[in-house]
Amino acid sequence: MGASTETSAFGVTHNPYDLKRVAGGSSGGSTAAVAANFCTAAIGTDTGGSIRQPAHFCGVTGLKVSYGRVSRWGTIPMASSLDTVGPIAKTAEDCAMILNVIAGQDKKDSTTLQTEVPDYVQLLETSIEGMKIGVPEEYFATEGVDTDVLEVIESTKAILTDLGATLVPISLPHTEYGVPVYYIIAPSEISANMARFDGIRFGSGKEGKTLEDIYKKTREEGFGDELKRRILIGTYALSAGYYDAFYRKAQKVRTLIKEDFDNAFEEVDAILTPVSPTPAFEIGENSTPLQMYLEDTFTIPASLAGVCGISVPVGQSEDGNLPIGAQLIGPQSREDRILRIAHHIQENMNQ
Prior knowledge:
It is a single chain. The protein has helices at about 30-35, 50-60, 90-100, 145-160, 180-195, 210-220, 225-240, 245-265, 290-295, 300-305, 335-350, and strands at about 15, 20, 40-45, 60-65, 85-90, 130-135, 165-170, 270-275, 310-315, 325-330. The protein is α+β, with helices and mostly antiparallel strands. The strands form two sheets. The chain has an eight-stranded mixed beta sheet, with helices on both faces. Helix 5 (about 180-195) crosses helix 7 (about 225-240). The radius of gyration is 20 Å and the shape is globular.
């Protein structure tokens, strides 16, 4: 869990562009493998940005699908109301090919949508001329956004304008509450989901004199620091005296964040934002949990709203070493729309 894979049981994943830097997380291993040409594509999971953020760090394309668009059967649940499974590849076209295969209803996952799955590849070439792309002011007023990131977004705006799209200023007023809301809801669901890892049916299964010993040893040795931190936060937020003050209130604000997106998509076809405030940071640079959590500032709101988003590589840092992506967010079940926009951006860049 987290934005860097530094808490992974297998050790940190290094960024192929600079081995001193992180590949992002939590799907950093999948993303680095694609970026390093170890494979053509990979599957990742995105709960609060874990496909989009590492795709931004590693210069590849990463798609977070709408909640319920792809079955999660076979994945270990983290936060059940947020988890999604999606493709990571070099291009939007490759992501569309994979989504054609993995999207759709699954009787083994009751959260999957019953809506029809379009041919994402066939729709890629449809022109984006006349489309309205929203640019939310809140995503650019945040402190700590790197100038390189802002410059890449400006260049993306220019590409979209050249392709005939119209940029529309919009507001997503509850954006600032995304991170605090997420870090109440997600740890609460993590706490509940991790309860099954008790060493009996799931977990490392350590020996002990009593059942309590087995539980303690299994969870002490099997869980890393970040997971323990989230379990503690979540258990506290769900406890009898604090449920209403924290979890219930967070769910109410989550509804407001979703309504922000619903209102925005009545005016625009898609939304353009940064993926993360900075390019890939150095291993060990973000030394506190809060610094790490703020890396998800721009990806979390779409996750809370259940809509789709894609990170598409569009530039590099000023020194030319580190890739930088742009995020496109679309309405629920309109992956075809953001894939099409991302595809046209990439085609335009290659001309």
